[in-house]
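Lab meeting, action items carried over

1. Structure of the two-component assembly. Owner: GW. Status: complete.
Input record:
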Amino acid sequence: MTAPYPTPASGPATPSPPAQPPYLPPYQPPGVSGARIAGAVSLTLFYFGMIGLLPYYLEQYAARYGLASPIEPAFLLVAGAIVAILAGLSVATKPTRGWGPVRVMSAGFDLIYVVYLLQNPIYATTIRGFSITLTYGHLLELFLIPPAIGLLAGVVTTIGDIHHPWERIQLQFPQRA
Amino acid sequence: MYQPHPSALYRLAQILRALAILALVLLILFLATVAYSAVEMGEGIAKQAGSEHRSYSASLVGTAVLVNVTFPLSNQGYYNVRDLTLVAIFTNTSIQSAPIAVTETATPVNIPGHGTSDLTLLTAFDFANPAGPYLLLHDTNIAGTLFLNASYAAIIPVNLEVAFNYHWGAPFANLSYSLGTPKLESNETVAIPVTIYFENHTPGLTITGDLDVVVTQPNGTVCTKQTFPVHTEEGPVTLMETFYSPETCSLSGDTISSTFVGPGIDIALPTETIP
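Predicted assembly:
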Protein backbone atom coordinates (compact mmCIF):
# COMPACT_ATOMS: atom_id res chain seq x y z
CA MET A 1 0.00 0.00 0.00
CA THR A 2 1.25 3.44 -0.89
CA ALA A 3 0.89 6.28 1.54
CA PRO A 4 -1.25 9.13 0.24
CA TYR A 5 1.65 11.54 0.58
CA PRO A 6 5.43 11.12 0.45
CA THR A 7 6.95 9.46 3.48
CA PRO A 8 10.60 9.21 4.43
CA ALA A 9 12.41 6.42 2.62
CA SER A 10 12.53 3.13 4.52
CA GLY A 11 14.44 -0.14 4.05
CA PRO A 12 12.90 -2.96 2.03
CA ALA A 13 12.62 -5.29 5.04
CA THR A 14 10.75 -2.80 7.18
CA PRO A 15 7.02 -3.44 7.32
CA SER A 16 4.76 -0.66 6.05
CA PRO A 17 3.81 1.87 8.75
CA PRO A 18 0.13 2.18 9.64
CA ALA A 19 -1.72 4.49 7.23
CA GLN A 20 -1.46 8.06 8.42
CA PRO A 21 -4.33 10.45 8.10
CA PRO A 22 -3.85 12.63 5.01
CA TYR A 23 -2.75 16.26 5.06
CA LEU A 24 -1.05 16.09 8.43
CA PRO A 25 2.56 17.00 9.10
CA PRO A 26 5.20 16.71 7.78
CA TYR A 27 3.37 19.38 5.74
CA GLN A 28 4.30 22.79 7.06
CA PRO A 29 1.69 25.48 6.38
CA PRO A 30 3.23 28.58 4.84
CA GLY A 31 1.76 31.06 7.35
CA VAL A 32 1.23 34.74 6.66
CA SER A 33 4.26 36.02 4.83
CA GLY A 34 5.39 39.59 4.43
CA ALA A 35 4.65 39.45 0.70
CA ARG A 36 1.11 38.32 1.45
CA ILE A 37 0.61 41.17 3.89
CA ALA A 38 1.90 43.60 1.27
CA GLY A 39 -0.54 42.13 -1.25
CA ALA A 40 -3.38 42.39 1.26
CA VAL A 41 -2.60 46.04 1.98
CA SER A 42 -2.44 46.79 -1.76
CA LEU A 43 -5.81 45.12 -2.31
CA THR A 44 -7.29 46.97 0.66
CA LEU A 45 -6.17 50.29 -0.79
CA PHE A 46 -7.46 49.36 -4.26
CA TYR A 47 -10.84 48.27 -2.88
CA PHE A 48 -11.10 51.39 -0.75
CA GLY A 49 -10.41 53.48 -3.82
CA MET A 50 -13.00 51.67 -5.94
CA ILE A 51 -15.74 51.07 -3.36
CA GLY A 52 -15.19 53.97 -0.95
CA LEU A 53 -13.41 56.92 -2.54
CA LEU A 54 -14.71 56.64 -6.12
CA PRO A 55 -18.43 56.58 -5.17
CA TYR A 56 -17.71 59.34 -2.59
CA TYR A 57 -16.18 61.67 -5.19
CA LEU A 58 -18.76 60.73 -7.84
CA GLU A 59 -21.49 61.69 -5.39
CA GLN A 60 -19.75 64.97 -4.55
CA TYR A 61 -19.31 65.68 -8.27
CA ALA A 62 -22.97 64.88 -9.03
CA ALA A 63 -24.13 67.04 -6.09
CA ARG A 64 -22.50 70.06 -7.74
CA TYR A 65 -24.97 69.61 -10.61
CA GLY A 66 -27.95 69.20 -8.32
CA LEU A 67 -27.97 65.41 -8.54
CA ALA A 68 -28.57 64.65 -4.90
CA SER A 69 -28.18 61.10 -3.67
CA PRO A 70 -30.12 59.57 -0.78
CA ILE A 71 -26.88 58.01 0.58
CA GLU A 72 -24.69 60.01 2.96
CA PRO A 73 -21.18 60.53 1.51
CA ALA A 74 -19.59 59.70 4.87
CA PHE A 75 -21.45 56.39 4.89
CA LEU A 76 -19.94 55.52 1.51
CA LEU A 77 -16.46 56.15 2.89
CA VAL A 78 -16.97 54.15 6.08
CA ALA A 79 -18.71 51.23 4.38
CA GLY A 80 -16.10 51.23 1.60
CA ALA A 81 -13.33 51.13 4.20
CA ILE A 82 -14.91 48.17 6.00
CA VAL A 83 -15.46 46.25 2.73
CA ALA A 84 -11.84 46.95 1.73
CA ILE A 85 -10.37 45.97 5.11
CA LEU A 86 -12.32 42.70 5.17
CA ALA A 87 -11.25 41.95 1.59
CA GLY A 88 -7.62 42.60 2.53
CA LEU A 89 -7.95 40.49 5.65
CA SER A 90 -9.35 37.73 3.46
CA VAL A 91 -6.21 37.78 1.31
CA ALA A 92 -3.92 37.91 4.33
CA THR A 93 -5.56 34.97 6.11
CA LYS A 94 -5.86 32.70 3.08
CA PRO A 95 -3.05 30.33 4.19
CA THR A 96 -4.64 29.97 7.64
CA ARG A 97 -7.73 28.25 8.99
CA GLY A 98 -9.15 31.67 9.77
CA TRP A 99 -9.79 32.27 6.07
CA GLY A 100 -13.27 30.67 6.09
CA PRO A 101 -14.62 32.80 8.96
CA VAL A 102 -13.04 35.94 7.46
CA ARG A 103 -14.71 35.15 4.12
CA VAL A 104 -18.02 34.72 5.96
CA MET A 105 -17.55 38.10 7.66
CA SER A 106 -16.53 39.80 4.44
CA ALA A 107 -19.42 38.41 2.39
CA GLY A 108 -21.80 38.98 5.31
CA PHE A 109 -20.86 42.66 5.51
CA ASP A 110 -21.21 43.00 1.73
CA LEU A 111 -24.72 41.55 2.06
CA ILE A 112 -25.60 43.94 4.89
CA TYR A 113 -24.25 46.87 2.85
CA VAL A 114 -26.40 45.97 -0.17
CA VAL A 115 -29.45 45.35 2.05
CA TYR A 116 -28.91 48.80 3.61
CA LEU A 117 -28.76 50.39 0.17
CA LEU A 118 -31.99 48.56 -0.68
CA GLN A 119 -33.82 50.47 2.08
CA ASN A 120 -34.08 53.52 -0.14
CA PRO A 121 -33.46 52.39 -3.71
CA ILE A 122 -34.87 55.51 -5.31
CA TYR A 123 -32.84 58.17 -7.01
CA ALA A 124 -34.78 61.33 -7.69
CA THR A 125 -33.45 64.50 -9.21
CA THR A 126 -34.50 67.47 -11.27
CA ILE A 127 -32.65 68.59 -14.38
CA ARG A 128 -33.87 71.59 -16.35
CA GLY A 129 -37.43 71.17 -15.11
CA PHE A 130 -37.38 67.41 -15.65
CA SER A 131 -37.96 65.42 -12.48
CA ILE A 132 -36.44 61.99 -12.92
CA THR A 133 -36.95 59.13 -10.52
CA LEU A 134 -34.98 55.94 -10.96
CA THR A 135 -35.90 52.93 -8.88
CA TYR A 136 -32.88 50.68 -8.79
CA GLY A 137 -34.11 48.18 -6.20
CA HIS A 138 -34.22 45.24 -8.62
CA LEU A 139 -30.74 46.09 -9.88
CA LEU A 140 -29.43 46.16 -6.32
CA GLU A 141 -31.16 42.88 -5.58
CA LEU A 142 -28.98 41.32 -8.28
CA PHE A 143 -25.95 42.56 -6.35
CA LEU A 144 -27.06 40.38 -3.44
CA ILE A 145 -26.17 37.29 -5.48
CA PRO A 146 -22.33 37.41 -5.42
CA PRO A 147 -21.99 38.03 -1.66
CA ALA A 148 -24.70 35.45 -0.96
CA ILE A 149 -22.75 32.85 -2.91
CA GLY A 150 -19.55 34.11 -1.31
CA LEU A 151 -21.10 33.72 2.13
CA LEU A 152 -22.05 30.15 1.30
CA ALA A 153 -18.53 29.51 0.01
CA GLY A 154 -17.13 30.89 3.27
CA VAL A 155 -19.38 28.64 5.35
CA VAL A 156 -18.44 25.59 3.26
CA THR A 157 -14.75 26.53 3.52
CA THR A 158 -15.03 26.87 7.31
CA ILE A 159 -16.75 23.49 7.61
CA GLY A 160 -14.20 21.95 5.25
CA ASP A 161 -11.32 23.37 7.32
CA ILE A 162 -12.88 21.84 10.46
CA HIS A 163 -13.51 18.41 8.92
CA HIS A 164 -10.33 18.22 6.86
CA PRO A 165 -7.73 20.28 8.67
CA TRP A 166 -4.95 21.54 6.37
CA GLU A 167 -6.47 19.97 3.25
CA ARG A 168 -7.38 23.26 1.61
CA ILE A 169 -4.17 24.97 2.67
CA GLN A 170 -2.06 22.07 1.48
CA LEU A 171 -3.88 22.06 -1.87
CA GLN A 172 -3.67 25.80 -2.34
CA PHE A 173 -0.19 26.16 -0.92
CA PRO A 174 1.62 22.90 -1.74
CA GLN A 175 4.78 22.10 0.15
CA ARG A 176 7.77 23.22 -1.79
CA ALA A 177 10.52 20.66 -2.26
CA MET B 1 4.08 17.52 -7.95
CA TYR B 2 2.03 15.61 -5.46
CA GLN B 3 -1.73 16.39 -5.50
CA PRO B 4 -3.97 14.51 -3.05
CA HIS B 5 -7.56 13.87 -4.01
CA PRO B 6 -9.59 16.84 -2.67
CA SER B 7 -12.67 16.29 -0.58
CA ALA B 8 -16.21 17.12 -1.75
CA LEU B 9 -16.38 20.10 0.65
CA TYR B 10 -13.20 21.57 -0.79
CA ARG B 11 -14.48 21.18 -4.35
CA LEU B 12 -17.87 22.65 -3.43
CA ALA B 13 -16.21 25.68 -1.84
CA GLN B 14 -14.05 26.15 -4.95
CA ILE B 15 -17.10 25.98 -7.22
CA LEU B 16 -19.03 28.47 -5.06
CA ARG B 17 -16.13 30.91 -5.03
CA ALA B 18 -15.84 30.69 -8.82
CA LEU B 19 -19.60 31.23 -9.16
CA ALA B 20 -19.48 34.30 -6.90
CA ILE B 21 -16.67 35.83 -8.96
CA LEU B 22 -18.46 34.99 -12.22
CA ALA B 23 -21.71 36.54 -10.97
CA LEU B 24 -19.90 39.70 -9.90
CA VAL B 25 -18.10 40.05 -13.23
CA LEU B 26 -21.36 39.54 -15.17
CA LEU B 27 -23.15 42.08 -12.98
CA ILE B 28 -20.42 44.67 -13.46
CA LEU B 29 -20.56 44.12 -17.23
CA PHE B 30 -24.36 44.42 -17.14
CA LEU B 31 -24.19 47.61 -15.09
CA ALA B 32 -21.61 49.12 -17.42
CA THR B 33 -23.68 48.35 -20.53
CA VAL B 34 -26.87 49.65 -18.86
CA ALA B 35 -25.14 52.92 -17.99
CA TYR B 36 -23.68 53.22 -21.49
CA SER B 37 -27.07 52.45 -23.10
CA ALA B 38 -28.85 54.95 -20.88
CA VAL B 39 -26.42 57.69 -21.92
CA GLU B 40 -26.83 56.75 -25.59
CA MET B 41 -30.62 56.80 -25.29
CA GLY B 42 -30.59 60.12 -23.43
CA GLU B 43 -28.43 61.72 -26.13
CA GLY B 44 -30.75 60.34 -28.82
CA ILE B 45 -33.83 61.75 -27.12
CA ALA B 46 -32.12 65.12 -26.60
CA LYS B 47 -31.29 65.28 -30.32
CA GLN B 48 -34.83 64.28 -31.21
CA ALA B 49 -36.34 66.89 -28.90
CA GLY B 50 -34.62 69.58 -30.96
CA SER B 51 -36.21 68.44 -34.22
CA GLU B 52 -39.88 68.69 -35.15
CA HIS B 53 -40.84 65.16 -36.07
CA ARG B 54 -44.17 65.06 -34.32
CA SER B 55 -47.60 65.09 -35.87
CA TYR B 56 -50.41 67.16 -34.45
CA SER B 57 -54.11 67.30 -35.22
CA ALA B 58 -57.24 68.63 -33.57
CA SER B 59 -60.91 67.85 -34.19
CA LEU B 60 -64.30 68.58 -32.71
CA VAL B 61 -66.03 65.48 -31.35
CA GLY B 62 -69.17 65.53 -29.20
CA THR B 63 -68.70 68.38 -26.77
CA ALA B 64 -64.93 68.43 -26.89
CA VAL B 65 -61.86 69.29 -28.87
CA LEU B 66 -59.66 66.25 -29.30
CA VAL B 67 -55.98 67.07 -29.63
CA ASN B 68 -53.88 64.24 -31.02
CA VAL B 69 -50.11 64.44 -30.73
CA THR B 70 -47.93 61.65 -32.07
CA PHE B 71 -44.17 61.71 -31.78
CA PRO B 72 -41.46 59.12 -32.36
CA LEU B 73 -39.25 58.10 -29.46
CA SER B 74 -36.00 56.41 -30.33
CA ASN B 75 -33.91 54.15 -28.15
CA GLN B 76 -30.25 54.15 -29.17
CA GLY B 77 -29.23 51.90 -26.27
CA TYR B 78 -28.82 48.12 -26.18
CA TYR B 79 -31.71 47.38 -23.87
CA ASN B 80 -35.47 47.50 -24.40
CA VAL B 81 -37.72 50.15 -22.94
CA ARG B 82 -40.87 48.31 -21.94
CA ASP B 83 -44.36 49.25 -20.79
CA LEU B 84 -43.83 52.92 -21.49
CA THR B 85 -46.90 54.94 -20.55
CA LEU B 86 -47.48 58.66 -20.65
CA VAL B 87 -50.00 60.52 -18.52
CA ALA B 88 -50.58 64.23 -19.01
CA ILE B 89 -52.57 66.40 -16.63
CA PHE B 90 -53.68 69.87 -17.67
CA THR B 91 -54.59 72.31 -14.92
CA ASN B 92 -55.59 75.93 -14.63
CA THR B 93 -56.86 76.48 -11.13
CA SER B 94 -57.99 80.01 -11.90
CA ILE B 95 -60.79 78.66 -14.09
CA GLN B 96 -61.35 75.17 -12.67
CA SER B 97 -60.06 73.55 -9.49
CA ALA B 98 -60.11 70.03 -10.94
CA PRO B 99 -57.80 69.19 -13.84
CA ILE B 100 -59.13 70.48 -17.15
CA ALA B 101 -58.00 67.37 -18.96
CA VAL B 102 -56.24 64.14 -18.10
CA THR B 103 -54.87 61.94 -20.79
CA GLU B 104 -52.71 58.85 -21.12
CA THR B 105 -51.33 56.59 -23.77
CA ALA B 106 -53.92 54.04 -24.82
CA THR B 107 -51.61 51.05 -24.54
CA PRO B 108 -48.12 50.69 -23.09
CA VAL B 109 -45.41 51.10 -25.70
CA ASN B 110 -42.31 48.96 -26.09
CA ILE B 111 -39.21 50.41 -27.73
CA PRO B 112 -36.63 47.80 -28.68
CA GLY B 113 -32.92 48.51 -28.41
CA HIS B 114 -31.72 50.52 -31.41
CA GLY B 115 -35.38 51.00 -32.38
CA THR B 116 -38.04 53.67 -32.54
CA SER B 117 -41.71 53.61 -31.56
CA ASP B 118 -44.45 56.17 -31.97
CA LEU B 119 -46.12 57.58 -28.89
CA THR B 120 -49.63 58.98 -29.21
CA LEU B 121 -51.33 61.25 -26.74
CA LEU B 122 -55.02 61.93 -27.33
CA THR B 123 -56.32 64.72 -25.13
CA ALA B 124 -59.97 65.75 -24.86
CA PHE B 125 -60.72 69.30 -23.76
CA ASP B 126 -64.38 68.86 -22.92
CA PHE B 127 -66.53 71.98 -23.01
CA ALA B 128 -69.16 70.28 -20.86
CA ASN B 129 -66.79 70.79 -17.92
CA PRO B 130 -67.17 73.88 -15.70
CA ALA B 131 -64.21 75.45 -17.49
CA GLY B 132 -65.80 74.75 -20.88
CA PRO B 133 -67.52 78.13 -21.49
CA TYR B 134 -64.28 79.91 -20.69
CA LEU B 135 -62.15 77.66 -22.90
CA LEU B 136 -64.54 78.07 -25.82
CA LEU B 137 -64.02 81.82 -25.92
CA HIS B 138 -60.69 82.58 -24.30
CA ASP B 139 -57.10 81.75 -24.99
CA THR B 140 -55.23 80.85 -21.83
CA ASN B 141 -52.14 79.19 -20.50
CA ILE B 142 -52.68 75.77 -19.02
CA ALA B 143 -50.12 74.18 -16.76
CA GLY B 144 -49.32 70.69 -17.95
CA THR B 145 -47.54 67.90 -16.15
CA LEU B 146 -46.34 64.89 -18.09
CA PHE B 147 -45.63 61.66 -16.25
CA LEU B 148 -43.61 59.01 -18.07
CA ASN B 149 -43.34 55.54 -16.61
CA ALA B 150 -41.30 52.79 -18.17
CA SER B 151 -39.18 49.80 -17.38
CA TYR B 152 -35.60 49.96 -18.66
CA ALA B 153 -33.38 46.92 -19.18
CA ALA B 154 -36.20 44.79 -17.72
CA ILE B 155 -35.39 45.59 -14.09
CA ILE B 156 -35.06 49.36 -13.74
CA PRO B 157 -38.34 51.26 -13.41
CA VAL B 158 -37.97 54.86 -14.57
CA ASN B 159 -40.39 57.65 -13.74
CA LEU B 160 -40.05 60.98 -15.46
CA GLU B 161 -42.11 64.03 -14.56
CA VAL B 162 -42.02 67.05 -16.80
CA ALA B 163 -43.80 70.31 -16.15
CA PHE B 164 -44.69 72.28 -19.25
CA ASN B 165 -46.85 75.16 -20.31
CA TYR B 166 -49.61 74.53 -22.82
CA HIS B 167 -51.03 77.50 -24.67
CA TRP B 168 -54.71 76.91 -25.25
CA GLY B 169 -56.20 78.50 -28.33
CA ALA B 170 -59.97 78.94 -28.09
CA PRO B 171 -61.99 77.70 -31.08
CA PHE B 172 -64.54 80.50 -30.75
CA ALA B 173 -62.28 83.20 -29.37
CA ASN B 174 -63.69 86.72 -29.09
CA LEU B 175 -67.19 85.57 -30.12
CA SER B 176 -69.40 88.59 -30.52
CA TYR B 177 -72.80 89.39 -31.95
CA SER B 178 -73.40 92.82 -33.49
CA LEU B 179 -76.94 93.88 -34.24
CA GLY B 180 -77.54 96.53 -36.85
CA THR B 181 -80.45 98.95 -37.01
CA PRO B 182 -83.76 97.05 -37.07
CA LYS B 183 -85.89 97.75 -40.12
CA LEU B 184 -89.66 97.30 -40.09
CA GLU B 185 -90.79 95.03 -42.87
CA SER B 186 -94.21 95.17 -44.46
CA ASN B 187 -95.36 91.85 -42.99
CA GLU B 188 -95.18 93.02 -39.34
CA THR B 189 -91.73 91.62 -38.89
CA VAL B 190 -88.52 93.38 -38.15
CA ALA B 191 -85.36 92.75 -40.16
CA ILE B 192 -82.23 92.90 -38.05
CA PRO B 193 -78.81 92.70 -39.66
CA VAL B 194 -76.63 90.53 -37.44
CA THR B 195 -72.90 90.10 -37.65
CA ILE B 196 -71.27 87.24 -35.79
CA TYR B 197 -67.56 87.33 -35.37
CA PHE B 198 -65.14 84.87 -33.83
CA GLU B 199 -61.60 83.66 -34.26
CA ASN B 200 -60.55 80.04 -34.37
CA HIS B 201 -57.32 79.98 -32.40
CA THR B 202 -57.06 76.20 -32.05
CA PRO B 203 -54.09 75.07 -34.16
CA GLY B 204 -55.00 72.43 -36.71
CA LEU B 205 -58.72 72.58 -35.99
CA THR B 206 -61.17 72.87 -38.85
CA ILE B 207 -64.62 73.95 -37.73
CA THR B 208 -67.28 72.58 -40.04
CA GLY B 209 -70.98 72.60 -39.19
CA ASP B 210 -73.85 74.94 -38.45
CA LEU B 211 -74.12 77.70 -35.92
CA ASP B 212 -77.71 77.79 -34.69
CA VAL B 213 -78.41 81.23 -33.28
CA VAL B 214 -81.52 81.86 -31.19
CA VAL B 215 -82.84 85.17 -29.83
CA THR B 216 -85.00 84.61 -26.78
CA GLN B 217 -87.13 87.04 -24.78
CA PRO B 218 -86.76 87.11 -20.97
CA ASN B 219 -90.06 85.23 -20.71
CA GLY B 220 -88.64 82.41 -22.80
CA THR B 221 -90.39 83.25 -26.05
CA VAL B 222 -88.18 82.63 -29.05
CA CYS B 223 -88.06 85.73 -31.23
CA THR B 224 -86.06 84.30 -34.03
CA LYS B 225 -83.79 81.42 -34.93
CA GLN B 226 -81.21 81.43 -37.66
CA THR B 227 -78.66 78.90 -38.87
CA PHE B 228 -75.25 79.91 -40.18
CA PRO B 229 -73.18 77.37 -42.06
CA VAL B 230 -69.58 77.52 -40.86
CA HIS B 231 -66.47 76.11 -42.43
CA THR B 232 -63.26 77.60 -41.24
CA GLU B 233 -59.73 76.70 -40.45
CA GLU B 234 -57.57 78.64 -38.04
CA GLY B 235 -58.28 82.35 -38.24
CA PRO B 236 -61.04 84.98 -37.99
CA VAL B 237 -64.60 84.32 -39.13
CA THR B 238 -67.25 86.92 -39.88
CA LEU B 239 -70.82 85.73 -40.49
CA MET B 240 -73.40 88.25 -41.65
CA GLU B 241 -77.08 87.48 -41.89
CA THR B 242 -80.42 89.20 -41.51
CA PHE B 243 -82.69 88.02 -38.70
CA TYR B 244 -86.43 88.40 -38.98
CA SER B 245 -88.35 88.67 -35.74
CA PRO B 246 -91.91 89.65 -34.86
CA GLU B 247 -92.52 93.30 -34.25
CA THR B 248 -93.40 92.45 -30.65
CA CYS B 249 -89.79 91.51 -29.88
CA SER B 250 -88.04 94.52 -28.44
CA LEU B 251 -84.58 92.84 -28.69
CA SER B 252 -83.20 95.03 -25.94
CA GLY B 253 -82.83 92.78 -22.90
CA ASP B 254 -83.35 89.65 -24.96
CA THR B 255 -80.72 86.97 -24.93
CA ILE B 256 -78.86 85.67 -27.91
CA SER B 257 -77.46 82.20 -27.74
CA SER B 258 -75.90 79.85 -30.20
CA THR B 259 -75.12 76.20 -30.53
CA PHE B 260 -72.57 74.78 -32.87
CA VAL B 261 -73.79 71.53 -34.36
CA GLY B 262 -72.25 69.18 -36.85
CA PRO B 263 -71.80 65.47 -37.44
CA GLY B 264 -71.50 64.16 -33.88
CA ILE B 265 -70.88 67.66 -32.53
CA ASP B 266 -73.13 69.62 -30.20
CA ILE B 267 -71.47 72.52 -28.44
CA ALA B 268 -73.47 75.19 -26.65
CA LEU B 269 -71.80 78.58 -26.80
CA PRO B 270 -72.22 81.09 -23.98
CA THR B 271 -75.32 83.26 -24.00
CA GLU B 272 -75.21 87.05 -24.33
CA THR B 273 -77.80 89.65 -23.37
CA ILE B 274 -78.62 92.21 -26.00
CA PRO B 275 -78.09 95.68 -24.52
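2. GW to write a short summary for the group page. Key points so far: Chain A touches chain B through 36 residues (CB under 8 Å). Residues 34-64 of chain A form the longest helix (31 residues).
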